[in-house]
Write a structure and sequence with these properties.
Oligomer: single chain
Distance between the termini: 54 Å
Structural class: alpha/beta
Strand content: 15-25%
Shape: globular
Strand order of the largest sheet: 3-2-1-4-5-6-10
Number of strands: 11
Largest sheet: 7 strands, parallel
Number of helices: 10
Helix content: 25-40%
C-alpha cells in the first residue's frame, strides 16, 4: 500500500508517517524542502509546491496512491489534483471556518462551546476572506467525495502545540517567566476558552480515520484535546510547570492589545 503525505514536516507529520509505516504503508511525503526533519530512510521525499494545482501536478507526475493525507498547501487545489489519483483522501483544515470565529461583532453569531460540526460556516468573503476560502476548500474536498472521485474526510484542527509547532504560542508566556516578571496582563481576566491540540493527540485522530475508512468517509470532524483550559488556566499551568509565581492582572482586551 502506498500513502502520500502532503506536508509531513510539521508538528504532527513525523508522528503520522510513523503510524502509517506501522500499518504497512510505503510512505512518500511531498513538501517544499524548506524544513527537513529526520525520518526513516525508506520514506521518499518529493519536493514541490502544494499551493498551486500546476506545481503540485508537476511534482507528482503520473503517480497514484492508495491513501493521501493533505496536511499542507491549498486544500482546494489538492482536492482537484487528487481526482483519479487515490481512492481515499483525508484533508486537514481548521476551526476558523465557523462564522463568528474571528469577527463575532460583524457576524452577529455567538459560537457555542464546544462548537458542533454543524455550526454555521463563514460564507461571506467580505467579513473574513481567509475563513471563507477555508470553507471553499472543504467544499471542494466533499464535492470530490460526492462525485465518486474518492472517499473523503475533513478534519478541523485547533491550535496545535508540541515540538515543531509553527506558531510557538507558549513562548510569549515563557519569555515573561524567563525574564522574571512578577505580573502578567491577562485580557478579559483570562476567561477566553480555546480548544488546543497536542501534536501526538492530533496524529492519533488522523490515524483513527485511516483505521476506519468506511465509518469516516464523507464526515467532517472537529478534533482537539479532551480537556479545554481557559487562557488564565493555561498561563497558570505553564507557570506552575516552570516553578514561577506571579500576579495575573486583568484588563479589557482592547487595552491589553494596545
Amino acid at each position: 500500500m502506498r500513502a502520500l503525505v502532503i506536508g509531513g514536516t510539521g508538528p504532527t507529520g513525523p508522528l503520522v508517517v510513523q503510524g502509517l509505516r506501522e500499518r504497512g504503508y510505503r510512505v512518500t511525503i511531498l513538501h517544499r524542502g524548506t524544513h527537513e526533519v529526520e525520518l526513516p530512510s525508506d520514506v521518499e521525499h518529493i519536493h514541490g509546491d502544494a499551493h498551486f494545482a500546476e506545481t503540485l501536478t508537476e511534482a507528482l507526475g503520473s503517480r497514484t496512491f492508495d491513501l493521501v493525507l493533505a496536511m499542507y498547501g491549498r486544500l482546494r487545489y489538492v482536492a482537484e489534483v487528487m481526482r483519479g489519483r487515490t481512492p481515499r483522501l483525508i484533508g486537514l483544515g481548521g476551526v476558523a471556518v465557523y462564522r463568528g470565529w474571528f469577527h463575532p461583532d460583524q457576524d452577529g453569531n455567538s459560537l457555542p462551546f464546544p462548537i458542533p460540526e454543524d455550526a454555521p460556516l463563514q460564507t461571506n468573503p467580505q467579513v473574513d476572506t481567509f475563513s471563507y476560502l477555508m470553507v471553499q476548500s472543504e467544499q471542494a474536498v466533499m464535492a470530490g467525495h460526492r462525485e465518486g472521485h474518492y472517499q473523503a474526510t475533513v478534519l478541523r484542527f485547533p491550535m496545535v502545540y508540541g515540538p515543531r509547532q509553527l506558531i510557538p504560542a507558549e513562548w510569549s508566556i515563557l519569555r515573561r517567566i524567563l525574564d522574571g516578571r512578577k505580573q502578567v496582563i491577562v485580557p478579559e481576566g483570562g476567561l477566553v476558552l480555546e480548544t488546543r491540540g497536542y501534536a501526538e493527540n492530533m496524529a492519533h485522530g488522523i490515524l483513527l480515520c485511516v483505521d476506519h475508512p468506511q465509518e469516516s468517509a464523507g464526515q467532517v470532524y472537529n478534533i482537539g484535546d479532551e480537556q479545554v483550559f481557559s487562557l488564565a488556566d493555561w498561563i497558570a499551568l505553564i507557570a506552575r510547570i516552570m516553578g514561577h509565581r506571579w500576579e495575573m492582572v486583568a484588563m479589557p482586551a482592547l487595552l491589553a492589545q494596545a
